[in-house]
Amino acid sequence: MRSALIITIAFSCLLGLAAYGQSPSAETPDRDLFSSDLVVWTVMQAPQPLASSANSNPAQSNSPAQKEVEPQPQTFTGTIQKEGATYVLRTSDKWYYELDDQSAAASWENRRVSVMGTLNVSGDLIHIHTITPLT
Q1: How far apart are CA 49 and CA 31, in angstroms?
Q2: Residue 89 sits in a domain of what CATH number?
Q3: Has residue 61 been placed in a domain?
Q4: Total domains, the chain
Q5: Burial class for 131, CB neighbours closer than 10 Å (0-12, 13-18, 19+)
Q6: Model pTM?
Q7: Residue 33 banded pLDDT, cuts 50, 70, 90
Q8: Residue 14 half-sphere exposure, CB side, CA atoms within 13 Å?
Q9: Phi, psi (5° rounding) for residue 94?
Q10: Could you read off the pLDDT of 77-86 as tens digits, one per residue?
Q11: Quick one: which of 120, 43, 126, 115 has its CA closest to 75?
C-alpha cells in the first residue's frame, strides 16, 4: 500500500513537471513563435511578403465576389529557341518558359532578348507584352 502511494505521488510530480514545461514562458511571446506571413515569388525575383491579413478589412476578405489580384508584368532575359514545335525563352541551361505569342517569338529565334510579360498561374508560360533585343 505504501509503495502504491509513493508511485502515485511520483507519477503526479512527473505529470506536473511535464505540464509546466509545456506552458509558454513570459520571455517568449506566442506571436513570435510562428509566422503566418505568406511569400509570393518566382525564380527570377526575390521573395516578397504578401499584404498581411490583419491590415485588410474582414468584411471584404469573406466576400465571395472579391476580385483576384492581377499579376504584375515582369522582365525575363534569355534566348528564344524552338523546343519541338513551340518557341520558348531559355533563361539558363536547365530553365525555360513557354511563350504565348508564337508568331512574335518566331522573329526573335536564337537571339538574346528581354521579354516583358506576366507569368500564368502555373509559372511556366509567359504572356508576352513586349520583346526587345539585348545588345
Answers
A1: 17
A2: 2.40.50
A3: no
A4: 1
A5: buried
A6: 0.49
A7: very low
A8: 6
A9: -110, -10
A10: 999 999 999 9
A11: 115
